[in-house]
Specification:
The complex is a heterodimer of chains A (393) and B (354).
Chain A lengths: L1 H24 E8 L6 H18 L2 E2 L2 E9 L5 H13 L5 E4 L3 H14 L2 E4 L14 E3 L4 H14 L4 E7 L2 H17 L2 E8 L7 H9 L4 E5 L5 H11 L8 E5 L5 H7 L7 E4 L8 H14 L5 H19 L6 H8 L3 E4 L2 E5 L6 E13 L2 E13 L2 H5 L4
Parallel strand pairs in A: 1-3, 1-4, 4-5, 5-6, 7-8, 7-9, 9-10, 10-11
Antiparallel strand pairs in A: 2-3, 11-14, 12-13, 13-14, 14-15
Helix pairs in contact in A: 2-11, 3-4, 5-6, 8-9, 11-12
Chain B lengths: L17 H7 L3 H9 L2 H5 L4 H23 L8 H16 L5 H23 L4 H21 L1 H4 L24 H22 L2 H11 L1 H6 L4 H27 L9 H14 L6 H19 L5 H14 L3 H13 L4 H6 L12
Helix pairs in contact in B: 4-9, 4-12, 4-13, 4-14, 5-6, 5-12, 6-12, 9-12, 10-12, 13-14, 13-16
The chains are: A alpha/beta (393), B mainly alpha (354).
């Protein structure tokens, strides 16, 4: 009996000792995003980006082991996101919460980050206001105005004076429409018509015929991906819209890899603005794409690079704080951080904690028999224009 | 709904029928169940956020049980009322009134009103037609909320929901402490109401309508008014459940109106056992804990074990967990013992009631 008790005590001591040792030498990261459901692939790509960074840089930083704790948000569900964030912090004692593929989820979790004073890295959700919801948040993806206002400004600069806009009838589409129209008008252009198509629409003939009848210099289209870009490509070709006279432009989703596959040659000449494409020409990106392909047998996309750069911010911030995971220390370390990412030079705005990066203007071209987004112009170090307009506190 | 509801009660009964009195009596296992709901405070204080969402889901399932389990109204769009209540509570708070209890009432009334209007349609149909109508109604409301993005915030969710402390004293905290006891008390209050309701003559006639509406009509209990009443009450409860979700999480998004939510709650109720007071409650506990556990083990493929669990339950316990337990108790007490010897066990018999 006595021996049993001693053994138990020993075991308990060992257990406690390892537990406290673990507490000292690990950084726990709660990763909250969709691993299942409609947005599962987004989650997979973000997660792949994070894993690749950890593979390249080791899973220890500043003497601490980095441990990811993935949690499935399962789609648009801010109540779930909030609970997962709460649980991650309260139950799993994570040091920071990261991920966030969708805006409503990021907004809900931001409350928790602010309340618990925990560092938060938004690796995807792109609505402008998100970063204002927690003073402990940085973003490593992009913002809708950042891309679309850049595109509006560029469209005017390239000679277009009359624009027609066609967007998906839900919030992100509306945001894109607003941003493009605003920048285009501010530059001096005119919006001669606009339409919002139903979210699940697959026949764009009528919309594009109407656009063609008004003979704009540029047609701006916002699609969320899926099968719609292919349908748009088909309708543009069928309506006989001459891309030399009328530019068809949009946010990067319009000419994603999958979209281009569906469109085929109908997509040739489409112009999009975006912060990342696997065809970006730099040594850093070439290596990134090659490593990514070796590891996951597919090309990285904007989600992957969001996860990859998110991990970079986490690693570098931890190095600066020497492993201190206090929210204030980490956010101070992250502010103003600048580095060379696969997407090109990028930094974290010290004031807004939002991403600052180049926005590339690309045209779909056939390179070696393959449809690719080829960069031919860019806007340097674009900040989120929405926040620049917000009154300073 | 008092037992002396003029529409349904037998002429001036002085005492309830013994059969009904027996049903009203609180059993020991019920006391144990409700005492056990306090356990998370002591045993698992890290799981209070989950516990509060279980309580909300349980209330939602209870509301579906009233119409599906007791009145036989099939619904694939019950999230419409849940979501309507959730948005109502969110908007009330956004417009500057963050007091939770009155917000709850307002949200419940709003959803109840919607349910009342819908009930005129619902009362005219049964079975398959109801599935289509409720499904369509749910989708319509979802699309309406999406389009009215000025009001609801659209796909980004409603922003600016801030709740005041409950009774001016208890703030909704990070640990979910307030959230859980708040949700639990609301659940308990509505459970008492539901319990009283279904054990009343009104509840009895609902069960009659479920089994045979034509015959109920013949004995003087018209199904229309009964169905309208219970549907309105269920909508009110679903609205309150949605409101509690809004208030405890301070977020609302289109997800509250999603078809997935309607489907989930149906699954939860069937899992626990429809037509039994505790069916929705037990279903919510099992489903939510299983989901939390499986998705913790594997965030990508956790739907697989959930699916297996559901198939197993429907295959072996066609009347849900509680139905299965009741059968087991009957068997142990010997009521069906001889039946078992002469005929195959219930789960192998065809034609058992779903």
């Amino acid at each position: 009996m006595h021996r049993a008790m001693t053994g138990l005590a020993c075991l308990a001591t060992i257990f406690l000792a390892t537990a406290s040792a673990n507490a000292q030498s690990t950084v726990k990261i709660g990763v909250i995003m969709s691993y299942s459901g409609q947005f599962a692939d987004t989650g997979t790509q973000i997660s792949n980006g994070m894993k690749l960074y950890m593979k390249e840089h080791g899973d220890t930083v500043a003497g601490k082991k980095v441990e990811l704790m993935p949690k499935d948000n399962g789609g648009i569900a801010p109540d779930v996101a909030k609970r997962l964030a709460q649980e991650a912090i309260v139950r799993d004692k994570v040091d920071m919460i990261v991920g966030f593929d969708l805006t409503p989820n990021a907004l809900a979790a931001a409350d928790v980050s602010a309340q618990a004073k925990k560092f938060m890295v938004n690796m995807n959700a792109a609505t402008s206001i998100i970063t204002t919801k927690s003073p402990y948040m940085v973003r490593t993806s992009f913002t809708v105005p950042q891309v679309n206002e850049s595109l509006g400004t560029w469209a005017y600069k390239s000679g277009a004076r009359k624009a027609y806009t066609l967007v998906s009838d839900f919030s992100p589409g509306h945001d894109g429409e607003q941003a493009f129209q605003r920048a285009f008008k501010e530059a001096g252009g005119e919006i001669i018509g606009s339409a919002r198509y139903p979210v699940a629409n697959l026949d764009f003939t009528a919309f594009l015929q109407r656009a063609k009848d008004m003979s704009p210099d540029v047609i701006y289209i916002w699609v969320p991906g899926g099968p719609q870009p292919a349908a748009i490509g088909k309708a543009v070709a069928e309506r006989g819209i001459d891309l030399n006279k009328t530019k068809v432009v949009g946010q990067g989703e319009l000419t994603f890899d999958e979209a281009l596959k569906g469109m085929g040659d109908a997509g040739l000449g489409f112009i999009t603005a975006f912060h990342y494409d696997h065809n970006h020409q730099s040594a850093k990106n070439k290596k990134f794409v090659a490593d990514y392909n070796a590891e996951f047998k597919r090309n990285p996309d904007m989600f992957s690079v969001g996860g990859y750069d998110g991990m970079h911010v986490i690693y570098e911030a931890l190095k600066k704080t020497k492993g201190d995971t206090d929210g204030d220390a980490l956010i101070a370390a992250a502010k103003g951080m600048a580095w060379e990412s696969p997407r090109g030079p990028m930094s974290i705005d010290p004031e807004t904690r939002d991403v600052v990066q180049n926005i590339y203007i690309r045209r779909v071209e056939k390179v070696g028999g393959q449809l690719l987004n080829v960069e031919f112009d860019k806007l340097d170090n674009v900040k989120d224009p929405f926040k620049a307009r917000m009154p300073k506190q | 709904m008092t037992p002396t509801d003029p529409a349904t009660a037998a002429p001036a009964p002085t005492a309830p029928h013994p059969h009904m009195a027996a049903q009203v009596r609180w059993r020991t296992v019920e006391y144990v169940f409700w005492l056990a709901t306090l356990l998370p405070f002591v045993v698992a204080p890290d799981y209070l956020a989950l516990a509060s969402q279980i309580a909300i889901t349980a209330l939602f399932a209870l509301s579906l049980d009233l119409i599906l389990g007791y009145a036989g109204i099939v619904s694939l769009g019950h999230a419409a009322f849940f979501g309507f209540g959730a948005y109502a509570a969110g908007l009330v708070s956004k417009w500057g009134w963050g007091e939770p209890l009155s917000g709850l009432l307002i949200a419940g009334l709003a959803a109840g009103l919607l349910g009342y209007l819908m009930s005129f349609v619902i009362a005219r149909f049964r079975h398959l037609a109801l599935i289509m109508i409720t499904l369509g109604f749910g989708l319509l409301l979802l699309e309406a909320a999406n389009s009215a993005s000025g009001l609801t915030g659209g796909a980004d969710g409603l922003q600016g929901v801030k709740m005041w402390p409950v009774l001016g004293l208890f703030k909704f905290d990070l640990y979910g402490f307030t959230a859980y006891w708040y949700a639990l008390i609301v659940l308990f209050v509505f459970f008492l109401m539901a319990r009283r309701l279904i054990n009343s003559p009104f509840g009895l006639s609902l069960r009659g309508i479920r089994e045979n509406p034509v015959r109920m009509r013949a004995i003087g209990a018209e199904s229309g008014p009964h169905i309208r009443k219970i549907y309105t009450i269920a909508a009110f409860m679903a609205g309150v459940a949605g409101a509690v979700l809004t208030q405890t999480t301070e977020t609302v998004s289109l997800g509250v109106l999603d078809f997935q939510r309607s489907a989930d709650i149906l699954v939860i109720l069937i899992l626990g056992g429809a037509g039994r007071l505790y069916g929705g409650l037990i279903g919510a506990i099992i489903y939510m804990i299983a989901r939390d556990w499986f998705s913790g083990v594997n965030p990508q493929y956790w739907y697989f074990p959930i699916g297996v669990l559901l198939i197993a339950v429907v295959l072996f316990l066609p009347n849900g967990m509680l139905g299965g337990i009741a059968q087991l108790i009957d068997t142990v007490r010997g009521r069906r013992w001889f039946g078992w010897l002469t005929s195959p066990p219930p789960w192998l018999r065809s034609g058992s009631k779903p």
